[in-house]
C-alpha cells in the first residue's frame, strides 16, 4: 500500500495502481498469514477489485448485496472465458469469498457494510457455486484426483517409512484420521493437542487464516501420547525450545511439504508410487501425496456412510460442493451408499 486518503487506499498490483475502498483494505490488512500466503491472498483480492474498477466503474460500498452477487458472477464468468486454470479460478473464488465474509459481518467488523453475504446469495438465488465457473478438468488432473490412500495402502506406507520412522508414522496416521492439510499439520502446536478430550483445539489454518478444532480417535491419541510423552518428540534438537508439535533438528517446526516428501519416499519403498505426468514446471506429478492421504480420510468417512456436510467439516472445506469435487466418488461407491435406501 502506498497512498491513503479519506475515500480510498491505493495498492500496486502487477505494476498498476488499484484504488480500493478502505473497507477492502481493512480486510487485506487483517489477514493473518505468512508473507508468501499473504501476497497470494492480496493479489487475488486486488485482481477482483481491479476488475470491478475497470469493467463496472468501481467497487460499490453502498447498495444491495444483489449488486455484488452480479459482480461476482461477471468476474468469475470472465475468468473462465479468458481461459484461466482451474486452480487459479478456485483461488480467486476462495479469496473473494473471504472478502465478502468479512464485509458482511457488521456485528464483528466495524467496516462491514453488507447485511447479506453475496456469495451465499448467489448460490441461493441461482444455484451457482465455485464449480460452475471452473473449466473442464484435464485427464491428468482426473487421474491424480482418482486415487486416495485406503486402509491397506496406509499400512503399506507405515511399514515402509524413512527415518525418523515413528515421527513420520504419527504424522501420517494423524493426517489420515483427521483429514488435516499438510500446512495445518506443520503448524500444529503442543497447546492444540488435548489428549484427555480427544481433540485438536483451535489450531491455525493457514489457507483460510482462521482457527478450527477436530475430534481425533483413540488409536491416534495413543500415537500422539507416545510421541509427546514417550520421549520421541524430545529426541529432536529443537524440541525443547519449540512450541510446535513436530519440530526437527534444525527448525522449530517441519516444513509444510515434509509430509508429501515422506509419503513419496514411503510409497516408493512400498512399490505403490506412480508418475501421473508432469506439472507446468516440468516436475513429476506423484500419485501418493499429502492430498491423496487427506482424500483418503474423506473417502473413508464416505464409505462409512457419513454425509457430505459431515465430511466437509472434517476437511475444512467452504461448502459441500467443494467436498464433492475433491472426493473421487464413483457410481459404484454411490450405489453402495444407497443399497439400504427404500423409495
UniProtKB/TrEMBL annotation:
Span of domain Tyr recombinase: 144-339
GO biological process: DNA integration; DNA recombination
UniProt entry keywords in alphabetical sequence: DNA integration, DNA recombination, DNA-binding
Cited SUPFAM superfamilies: DNA breaking-rejoining enzymes (SSF56349)
Signal peptide, first to last residue: none
One GO MF term: DNA binding
InterPro entries: DNA_brk_join_enz, Integrase-like_cat_sf, Integrase_catalytic, Tyrosine_recombinase_XerCD
Domain of life: Archaea
Pfam families the record matches: Phage_integrase
The name this protein goes by in its record: Tyr recombinase domain-containing protein
Organism per entry: Halorubrum persicum
Amino acid at each position: 500500500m502506498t497512498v491513503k486518503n479519506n475515500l480510498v487506499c491505493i495498492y500496486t498490483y502487477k505494476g498498476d495502481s488499484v484504488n480500493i475502498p478502505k473497507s477492502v483494505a481493512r480486510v487485506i490488512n487483517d489477514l493473518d498469514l505468512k508473507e508468501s500466503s499473504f501476497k497470494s491472498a492480496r493479489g487475488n483480492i486486488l485482481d477482483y477489485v481491479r476488475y470491478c474498477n475497470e469493467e463496472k466503474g468501481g467497487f460499490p460500498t453502498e447498495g444491495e448485496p444483489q449488486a455484488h452477487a452480479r459482480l461476482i458472477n461477471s468476474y468469475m464468468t470472465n475468468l473462465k472465458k479468458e481461459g484461466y486454470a482451474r486452480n487459479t479460478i478456485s483461488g480467486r473464488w476462495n479469496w473473494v469469498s473471504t472478502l465478502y465474509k468479512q464485509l458482511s459481518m457488521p456485528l464483528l467488523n466495524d467496516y462491514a457494510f453488507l447485511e447479506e453475504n453475496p456469495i451465499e446469495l448467489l448460490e441461493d438465488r441461482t444455484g451457482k457455486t465455485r464449480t460452475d465457473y471452473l473449466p473442464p478438468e484435464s485427464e491428468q488432473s482426473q487421474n491424480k484426483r482418482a486415487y486416495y490412500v485406503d486402509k491397506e495402502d496406509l499400512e503399506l506406507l507405515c511399514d515402509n517409512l524413512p527415518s525418523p520412522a515413528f515421527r513420520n508414522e504419527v504424522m501420517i496416521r494423524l493426517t489420515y484420521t483427521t483429514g488435516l492439510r499438510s500446512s495445518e499439520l506443520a503448524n500444529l502446536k503442543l497447546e492444540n493437542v488435548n489428549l484427555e478430550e480427544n481433540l485438536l483445539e483451535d489450531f491455525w489454518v493457514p489457507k483460510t487464516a482462521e482457527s478450527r478444532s477436530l475430534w481425533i480417535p483413540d488409536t491416534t491419541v495413543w500415537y500422539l501420547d507416545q510421541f509427546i510423552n514417550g520421549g520421541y518428540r524430545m529426541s529432536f534438537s529443537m524440541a525443547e525450545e519449540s512450541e510446535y508439535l513436530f519440530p526437527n533438528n534444525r527448525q522449530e517446526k517441519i516444513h509444510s511439504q515434509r509430509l508429501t516428501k515422506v509419503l513419496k519416499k514411503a510409497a516408493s519403498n512400498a512399490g505403490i508410487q506412480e508418475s501421473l505426468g508432469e506439472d507446468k514446471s516440468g516436475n513429476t506429478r506423484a500419485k501418493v501425496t499429502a492430498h491423496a492421504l487427506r482424500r483418503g480420510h474423506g473417502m473413508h468417512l464416505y464409505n462409512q456412510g457419513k454425509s457430505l456436510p459431515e465430511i466437509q467439516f472434517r476437511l475444512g472445506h467452504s461448502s459441500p460442493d467443494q467436498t464433492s469435487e475433491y472426493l473421487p466418488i464413483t457410481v459404484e461407491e454411490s450405489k453402495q451408499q444407497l443399497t439400504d435406501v427404500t423409495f
